[in-house]
Amino acid sequence: VTATREATWDAASDANFKNIELFSGERLVLNSGLAEVTFEDGAVVLIESPAEFLIDAASAGTLAQGKLVARVNQPAAGFLVHTPTATITDLGTEFGVSVADDGVTDVAVLEGVVSVAARMPADATPIRLVAGQAAQVDDRGAKLSHPTSNSVRFTQALPVAKPTGGATLIARFPMGEEDGDAAPDNVTAEQLRDAVAARRLTRSGNPIYTEGSPAEESRLAVSFGGEADEHYSASDVVTSATDNFAVTAWVRSEQAEQVGAIVWNGDTGWGILQRGGSFCGHLNGVGDVGSCRFEPGQWHQLALIRHGGIATFYVNGTSVGSDPRAPMAPRGSFWIGCTVNNFHFHGGIDEVCVFALDPNSFRIEDFLANVIQQD
Length: 375
Prior knowledge:
Structural class: mainly beta
Strand content: over 45%
Mean pLDDT: 87
Shape: elongated
Helix content: under 10%
Distance between the termini: 30 Å
Radius of gyration: 22 Å
């Protein structure tokens, strides 16, 4: 069990807390909340309560009741999910499975391809489903169903704690937990998943996974080695906002001499930088916002918040500087760990989040209490 969110377990469950190791034949009985299980072959299964799930093998499980979403990268292709009425065989994909109290199984393919075989009749021909397709299986067999007419909705990622006071999470990059075969010291996935939207960032160079930051539920982070063109990026900004936004990230720099962009929204726009031995916010067209010295090799939570016409930079919940001037409108690409003036970031980055702030109801006190780790 690699992660949970507001999970409560039945007394009959063989797991009742995060980080417990499970073996074949053991089962999880989840009364409420969400639980993430990472299999030995790299498949990641997110179980949504109420649910009962049995560990069958290193690459197979049985959903007796409830819902799950399985993310299976290519090395784990062939992962099996059994239900009372069906067997779903993954062919390298992401798919959702729901089992009703009467055993009726609904399957929806979110990405890639799966094969769905009904348990009855015994000679039933498997159905092949591709992204956007769905099927329903009962004791009479399997049939295609229309996803838009299917009432089943699947949770694809563990939600982060939702800040109150007018802040809406619009992008979150967990930096590893969304990648099924991720492990420390491995080269990171070619695409970095946004846990909130369908956004993907593309890898350049060969950053590696490292152990996670102090952020809640963090198991992994991404370590950039200070090499040229080692970063993640997308061709579009996350937001074009020039006010009422926030960007946060956990950062561990390994060198105090370097300059690099930790998070940058737009070729014009704003983000968080390292300049020598200091972290700072930056608004394009304005300049640096705040500055704070740091100790290399230690994790810090950084936040650039602009609300009501004032930009403020925070380090571990402490304000280190503000500026009332407005940035240029963000246009172009979104970057994590990119090069600035031929200098390259060297260190770990984790839990990159972008928020939209309501101009009327946003409360910085609530945001700091719910999102930022205070000194």
